[in-house]
Amino acid sequence: MRTLTKITLTETKLALRSPAFVISGLVLPTAIMAVLGAIPAIRTESKDTPGMRFLDAWVPSMVVLTIAMMGLQSIPGIIATYREQGILRRFATTPVHPAKLLVAQLIINVTVTIGGVGVLLVAGTVFFDVPGPRHPLGFLLTFVLGTAAIFGLGLIAASVAKTSRAAGGIAMIAYLPIMFLGGVYLPRPLLPEAIQNIGAYIPPGVKALEDAWTGSGAQPLQLAVLAAFAVGSCVVATKLFRWE
Q: Which of the residues 9, 38, 48, 79 has an alpha carbon 20 to 30 A from that of 165?
């Protein structure tokens, strides 16, 4: 445990020297919400979002953005870079198992994800009077399962890529559809119903986040699908992963 702590602290210092993903994860979703919140029409109730403002309905999509950026852009690139530079191979020749390096990176990136979502929710409440989730436990469970599923997919990309550029390209196969289905590019209420139904069961579970947010609560089937994605992606990543 002491070794893992030291590695995590070292990796944190290295991440802060090139903080692009850290800053993006912590600030970008909130910045987008601030820009949207400055538009009066976004702060009014829409026929496409009955019972809530357009801005309120878009917050779960900003949660999707945070998870996807860190899980499908940051972590695959970092791990593939370590493999490309031979760092994982060199760790394998020391008493410190390279798995601890991967765990440290997961700790850092998941922490940034949690921080980014926290900043988003606090800023939304303070500056735009965005209500919090009506089912906090359902929201938390969806967030945990969705984050695990997305990071699992990111680890699959990192497992099969020989270079950081390749890892980014492979991760994009999942990143772009998830962003689209998650309502980041186009708000979900404006998507065709068939597309919305597909997105309801795709990690990180935007529909379950929405349901926990609006009051109906995440549905068991949605959570079960997320759990299956989380377990399945992590198992596949473990099977495919190579240190070199």
A: 9
CB 183 within 8 A of CB 60: yes
Tens digits of per-residue pLDDT, 28-46? Answer: 999 999 998 888 888 887 7
Q: What tokens appear for 35 in the block?
A: 């820009």
Helix (H) or strand (E) holding 202: none
- Radius of gyration for the chain, computed over Cα atoms and rounded to the nearest angstrom: 18
| Angle at alpha carbon of residue 115, lines to 227 and 132, rounded to 5° | 75
Residue appearing with tokens 């210092």: 13
pLDDT at 227: 94
Domain ranges of the chain: 2-240
pLDDT in tens, 205-243: 999 998 888 777 888 899 999 999 999 998 998 888 877
Token pair belonging to 161: 């890529």
Contact call for residues 114 and 35 (beta carbons, < 8 A): no
**Reported pTM:** 0.92
Measured from the Cβ of residue 72, the count of other Cβ atoms closer than 10 Å reads 26
